[in-house]
Backbone:
């Protein structure tokens, strides 16, 4: 924040106050969805896990 | 690009006797920097320094294909907080033993291997991918973007040097997977745990290996496969398994994976780590003309059993240049060529990458490679 105040200390605080944003945010953090893409699949299974 | 080298490679992969023995060398970035006298940490992050190191290897040693392999890029692993690849104080990328799949995860993995990897295993190897962290997608995006960018830059450097030094493509062309048993063992259960698991919970290990096969098949075979491409598969643990365990846990899915790769019009480039002599029959039984680089083993027996069917190479240990005379090193390579060359289906490669330039005598290795280039002619 501009005045240096930390609005939310962590994700749980944000989620508790703004449940309307939480599902979308949770969805983006879910790597299963990302890995449906071939190039990302190759990054995970041909690089990160080998 | 050299038409002569391309023809030699093409003949070799087609199972024909080529004009001479194809030479595929492998130095690490660490060795290249040692040879060029440049700082390894700087080379990781400065493309010009890295190129300087690569060029020095190309200028010094004869090879028919680009002779450096560098795929572990710290800028990819850093934003993920990686536990599996960490940089040492000297800049060497180290691969510690890890356990990212717990013994109690077996049932879930057998039921849904892909989902278990995404939800549980990846965040244990890469803590910054924990889905509970709001920054996880950004960490993933950073790592992915860097892997794509560095990969592009790496390919660009290899193409530029391949044109400058007239190289043909090697056998490592970018496609990369593992045998299903090795995939489960390497970064999921860890080598120490898996050797206990095959005795404690053999049914679960067998089921988990079977669950890993489709993951590796999808990784190995692109949606639009390119005929003639090779898929690199380093083979880790078979030599440490008893024959009955090899037949039960390793061979069925390994065999199936290779056959599926071949059905797609490609071949496997296998690196048979440690000593595969006792499992030579299993390699011979694969579809014809797979490319196999051996680390150790009984060269004569492997040539007899595997050499008639598959394209074999490796065995030569460059470390002998440090302890033997130049003549003794050339005698050693003559012995290898005498066994390997008859009938073709043979290429020259080191048994392992040259990891550290201090582990070899540069002038003697130059003499060995020049000897192979000039004399290993059909």
Residues:
């Amino acid at each position: 924040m501009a005045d240096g105040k930390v609005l939310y200390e962590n994700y749980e605080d944000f989620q508790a106050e703004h449940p309307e944003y939480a599902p979308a945010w949770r969805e983006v953090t879910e790597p299963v969805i990302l890995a449906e893409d071939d190039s990302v699949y190759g990054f995970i299974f041909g690089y990160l896990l080998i | 690009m050299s038409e002569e080298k391309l023809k030699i490679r093409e003949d070799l992969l087609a199972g024909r006797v080529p004009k001479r023995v194809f030479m595929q060398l492998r130095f690490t970035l660490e060795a290249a920097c040692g040879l060029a006298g440049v700082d390894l940490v700087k080379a990781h992050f400065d493309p010009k320094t890295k190129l300087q190191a690569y060029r020095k290897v190309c200028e010094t040693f004869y090879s028919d294909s680009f002779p450096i392999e560098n795929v572990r890029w710290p800028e990819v692993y850093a934003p993920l907080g990686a536990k599996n690849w960490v940089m040492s104080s000297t800049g060497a990328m180290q691969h510690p033993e890890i356990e990212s799949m717990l013994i109690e995860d077996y049932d879930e993995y057998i039921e849904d291997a892909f989902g278990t990897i995404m939800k549980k295993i990846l965040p244990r190897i890469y803590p910054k991918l924990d889905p509970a962290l709001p920054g996880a997608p950004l960490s993933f995006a950073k790592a992915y973007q860097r892997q794509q960018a560095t990969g592009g830059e790496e390919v660009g450097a290899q193409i530029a040097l391949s044109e400058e030094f007239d190289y043909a493509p090697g056998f490592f062309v970018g496609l990369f997977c593992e045998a299903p048993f090795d995939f489960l063992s390497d970064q999921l259960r860890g080598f120490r745990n898996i050797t206990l698991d095959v005795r404690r919970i053999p049914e679960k290990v067998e089921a988990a290996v079977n669950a890993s096969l489709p993951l590796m098949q999808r990784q190995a075979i692109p949606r639009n496969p390119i005929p003639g491409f090779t898929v690199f598969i380093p083979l880790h643990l078979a030599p440490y398994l008893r024959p009955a365990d090899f037949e039960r846990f390793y061979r069925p899915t390994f065999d199936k994976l290779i056959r599926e790769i071949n059905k797609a019009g490609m071949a496997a480039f296998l690196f048979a780590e440690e000593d595969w002599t006792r499992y030579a029959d299993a390699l011979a039984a694969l579809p014809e003309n797979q490319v196999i680089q051996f680390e150790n083993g009984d060269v004569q027996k492997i040539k007899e059993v595997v050499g008639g069917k598959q394209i074999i190479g490796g065995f030569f240990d460059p470390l002998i240049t440090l302890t033997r005379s130049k003549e003794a090193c050339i005698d050693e390579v003559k012995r290898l060529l005498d066994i390997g060359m008859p009938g073709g289906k043979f290429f020259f490669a080191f048994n392992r990458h040259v990891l550290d330039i201090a582990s070899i005598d540069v002038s003697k290795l130059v003499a060995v490679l020049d000897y192979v280039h000039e004399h290993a002619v059909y």
Observations:
- The mean pLDDT of chain B is 95.
- Chain B touches chain A through 38 residues (CB under 8 Å).
